[in-house]
Amino acid sequence: MQATFVEAVNQPVVVKETQTPRAGTGQVVVRLKAAALNHRDVWIQKGRYPGMTLPVIIGSDGAGVVVEIGQGVDSAWLGQAVIINSGHNWGDDARFYGPNFKILGMPDNGTFAEYIQVEAKYLAHKPAHLNFEEAAAVPLAGLTGWRALVSRAKLRVGERVLVTGAGGGVALFVLQFAVAQGGQVWVTSSSDEKIAKAVALGAKGGINYTNPDWAKNLIVATGGSRAGYFDVIIDSAGGAGFAKLIDVAAAGARICFYGGTAGNITDLVPGKIFFKQLAILGSTMGNEKEFSEMVQFIETHQIRPVIDEVFPLSEAEAALRRMDEGVQFGKIILKIWV
Question: Cys-Cys with 23: which of 68, 135, 152, 296 at CB 3.0–4.6 Å?
Fold first, then answer.
């Protein structure tokens, strides 16, 4: 089979022939129709991910058809169109993953390949309204957004939601989930074009955070009073700008962040947090129950993931460079089998 390998740090990925996996006990082999990129893939390529083990087939997200089942697997899975849960071995505590938790694509071989071996318990039926490219976009970003918004921040109908960094895969899932749940959603971005696209997806509006006064302008745009402040804020950046999220948070708000692309959080004023009774929450990925709930929600509400661009498997390096540039709006996809 053809597969995409990271063989050395800071080197282009290599697409080459390798052995097709077989299904062991409790496992299946999925013929992958499509895979999706995450920033994790770029970090692995750059050697910036903990516990590096190379060479490895990268890729955490994938969708395809089950073509082989191992001993102990229900035969009904054979021939089924499926989405693969990227996160394995969460553990027994729903609050936090255990020591054996891992994500597809390192250390285990991932989805940038024609076939993958995976335990059957990490499969979900592909929602019928999604094509394979859309289905491949769901697992890692969708689950991360679902846990942050639903499990951690516990969004309620009618609440005001602020999603930072509109354009990234997780942020767009959060936007779509929040709109479907009856939230009033606003976004931030460094691109006015991306803000306009977010509005087309159901956001009430947005603000360009490159303006030093973006926080004040956002409060004015949303009402100019406490009613204009946000009950739920979902962030991926951290950094010095996190302090402004405290300013736009309503009393009793929940701020949940799942990344730190802008670096360490600095300059927080404790009084602003405790007088407002704010909850600041960290989140990442999600457990098997949350994955199942998320896929069901997508099917029930007929949510379609936002696709930025589709590349063939042979152009995986070009796809990674687009991810690295950070210009995408939505998920970058590798099409593997027609």
Answer: 68
Let me know how long the chain is: 338
Residue ranges of the chain with per-residue pLDDT less than 70: 226-228, 338
CA nearest to 59, candidates 13, 118, 90, 105: 105
Q: pTM of the entire structure? A: 0.95
Report the alpha-carbon distance of residue 279 to residue 96 in Å, rounded: 17
- The amino acid that residue 65 corresponds to is V
279-282 vs 307-312, strand pairing mode: unpaired
Bridge-based pairing state of the strands 14-17 and 2-6: antiparallel
Q: Closest Cα partner for 231 from 176, 141, 292, 158?
A: 158
- Residues 208 and 14: their CA atoms lie apart, in Å, by 38
Q: Domains along the chain?
A: 2-138+305-335 (3.90.180.10), 143-282 (3.90.180.10)
Query: Where does 192-287 have alpha helices with state H?
Result: 192-200, 214-221, 242-248, 270-275
Residue 226: per-residue pLDDT: 66
C-alpha dihedral (102, 108, 113, 118), degrees to nearest 10: -70
Q: How far apart are CA 263 and CA 214, in angstroms?
A: 19
Handedness of CA 39, 186, 309, 79 (dihedral sign): positive
Q: How far is CA 171 from CA 105, 188, 281, in A?
A: 22, 10, 16
Q: Which amino acid is at 319?
A: A
The verdict on whether omega for the bond into residue 107 sits within 30 degrees of 0, i.e. cis, is: yes
